[in-house]
Amino acid sequence: MRKAFFSFLALFAAVFLTGCGDDKVASAQTDAIAKIKEQGFVRIGVFSDKPPFGYVNKDGKNQGYDIYFAKRIAKDLLGDENKVKFELVEAASRAEVLVANKVDITLANFTKTPERSKVVDFALPYMKVSLGLVSPEGELITDIAQLKGKKLIVNKGTTADAYFTKNHPEIELLKFDHNTETFAALLDKRGVALAHDNAMLFAWVKENAGFKVGIEAFGDVDVIAPAVKKGNTVLLEWLNKEIETLGKENFFHKAYDATLKPVYGDSVNPESLVVEGGKI
């Protein structure tokens, strides 16, 4: 009888503690949005040097496709599009700033990959992209085989870096943290070509005469999505609902028209880039 009584107490304690644990998890998740509302702004990680997606203009203001989306998030979450604090990030630190709780959301043109999904949680996509390769028109690279034994410029921690590291060890990679450094290296001819998201390259060559995207797409078609800290289910679900709702009003096509079309003109089909409602 005594043994049965203590067994019952042990079972009750286990159930009670489990319930408390579940309550703490639920409370922490709820607090993720409550904390944002309490602090009065949402912290969003964006690029400072990746036009036309995320950049700081000559007046010191954040601009671009990601910024257009970030302001809408602030408006729908806090009632004011200006209640957003932009944290400038590098390509290699986009997951790190979430893990370290320096931002609530990363929106820095963040391509979803299996490796990154182990570290952060991705919401539904709002864009799709492939890798591309840009080089001088006079020495145009039109095939990856032409890069063997030569220097290729990439950004650290990007899908381009991962793709060539995994699939083409015969190609020497010259890596930089910042886009400004990466493209400066191409202009200075420190490498024969530069690999990056093709959507960015299409914009860059329009502003830089003498260069051409010799390989418009290679590797997989990837998606770009907002990311939150691993386990932040409440904020993740809010973002998913937000993206689905925005899709019903064709929001991301409007964002394209406002931020990307002035750069691309008619040279790029928006359907090749824009994802509405998180549906590929």
UniProtKB/TrEMBL annotation:
SMART domains xref list: PBPb (SM00062)
Keyword Acetylation: no
Signal sequence range: 1-21
Positions of the Solute-binding protein family 3/N-terminal domain: 41-263
Highest taxon of the lineage: Bacteria
Pfam families, per database record: SBP_bac_3 (PF00497)
Gene3D superfamilies tied to this protein: Periplasmic binding protein-like II
Keyword Lipoprotein: no
UniProt keyword terms in alphabetical order: Signal, Transport
Family: Belongs to the bacterial solute-binding protein 3 family.
Annotated protein name in UniProt: ABC transporter glutamine-binding protein GlnH
Organism field: Campylobacter suis
Gene, per the UniProt record: glnH
